[in-house]
Design a protein that fits this description.
- With 278 residues, the chain is mainly alpha-helical.
- The chain has three domains: 50 residues, no CATH class; 95 residues, Orthogonal Bundle (DNA polymerase, domain 1), CATH 1.10.150; 112 residues, Intergrase catalytic core (hpI Integrase, Chain A), CATH 1.10.443.
- It is built from ten helices and six strands; from the N terminus they run E-E-E-H-H-H-H-H-H-H-H-E-E-E-H-H.
- A three-stranded antiparallel β-sheet has the order 1-2-3, with helices on one face.
């Protein structure tokens, strides 16, 4: 048994019924924390200590809302996290946390497969669920165990898709809408990821050096790419279409007609429609 200070608050750690229990004393006063720990020791000796799980009081929606607010909001691609949380909520509803069990999590995986979702997407959604329950157990004291850890992740297909032939690329561009066509050509000629393209700002475009800079890539690093004439023409076209005024450096290169960020899910649907048409 002992006390550990996390931030300004003292936490107590003690064994109970074969498990190591960690609970906040909810005080920054060490003497008061020691008194609280002493009371718990007496309760354990007298057999009067009952470790009531906190999940009885919290619901799944409360967990996911707090996850978005306090964790995902500080991450890149926040909208993607929102979409994944919405998928989880649509399946699980709003039960008490202890009703989310390995059985219901496996049922979620089966439902997503029935929806035609790929294993990699299912794994990302499970990772969100696992992180939310980790926070609930370790930091928020909302749950006792993380049931997601008892469910296996799915095997992903790691082989890369082949490159389009020149003829196939021509067929695709012929049927794609103009805004999708520019993005497809930009991606094909730079190799940039979808998220990198949609978050590209004019600060990252250098017409003189013929480069674009991704300030924060998927692995968190900055990288600068040389671009060819095709990409330069797309960039100049995007720049000239801002006829109302010179775009600011931190404004997006690619955005909707209303000037808002393009949604990755909408782009995916439009791209898939073009693939089918081609």
């Amino acid at each position: 048994m002992g006390l550990v200070k996390r931030g300004n608050v003292w936490w107590m750690s003690f064994p109970h019924e074969g498990r190591q229990i960690r609970r906040s004393t909810e005080t920054s006063d060490k003497r008061l924390a020691e008194a609280i720990l002493g009371k718990v020791k007496v309760q354990i000796i007298e057999g009067k200590y009952f470790d009531k799980p906190r999940e009885d009081a919290k619901t799944f929606s409360e967990l996911m809302d707090r996850y978005l607010r306090e964790h995902a909001s500080r991450r890149m691609h926040y909208r993607r996290y929102v979409n994944m949380v919405n998928n989880l909520k649509a399946f699980f509803g709003d039960p008490k946390l202890h009703h989310v069990t390995p059985k219901t999590i496996v049922a979620f995986k089966n439902k997503r497969y029935a929806d035609g979702v790929m294993p990699a997407t299912i794994n990302r959604e499970l990772a969100v669920l696992k992180k939310a329950f980790n926070l609930a157990c370790r930091e928020w004291e909302w749950a006792r165990d993380n049931q997601v850890c008892r469910v296996s992740m799915e095997r992903e297909q790691n082989t890369r898709d082949r490159w389009l032939t020149e003829q196939e690329e021509g067929q695709l561009l012929a049927v794609a809408s103009p805004w999708v066509r520019d993005l497809v050509m930009f991606a094909a000629n730079t190799g940039m990821r979808r998220g990198e393209i949609l978050s590209l700002t004019w600060n990252g475009v250098d017409f003189d050096r013929r480069t674009v800079t991704v300030f924060r890539s998927k692995n968190g690093e900055r990288r600068t790419l040389p671009v060819n004439q095709t990409v330069l023409e797309i960039l100049r076209k995007q720049y000239e279409e801002r006829a109302a005024g010179k775009p600011s450096g931190d404004s997006l290169v690619f955005h909707s007609e209303a000037g808002t960020p393009l949604d990755g899910s909408n782009l995916r649907r439009a791209f898939n429609s073009a693939l089918e048409a081609a």
